[in-house]
Amino acid sequence: NGVGVGLSTCYDIRFPALYTELADRGAELIAVCASWGAGPGKLSQWELLARARALDSTSYVVAVGQADPGYLEDSSGAPTGVGHSMITSPWGEVIATAGASPQLLVCDIDLDAVSAARRTLAVLSNRASFLQVGKAESRG
How far is 38 from 52, CA to CA, in rounded Å? Predict the structure, then answer.
């Protein structure tokens, strides 16, 4: 229905420039599919990063986290997932969240909120050119 959707994976959520680029290319909703590793502070990071990327891009972020498999050790060393999938608004608010176990989230989103956030916050249009890679310089 003409909705711009961006896609990213796990570790990508740590890089704001990817999310602003997806928004620049028309994404109004960005999905991040992850197997977020467990550990001290990791769940807080997951939520914080999803909310921050929604604010950075003034887009909905649908952060899909692999459910916690219920055991701590994995001989492969791969992340086992913490669950806690969430849908975050362009204002950085968590509007739906799952727990650690497998769960289906169904949520209506209002795409007008993307336009409103982009008008009000204007972070995409107000970025300074010195923030571009290779463009920073000091006027000493």
Answer: 20
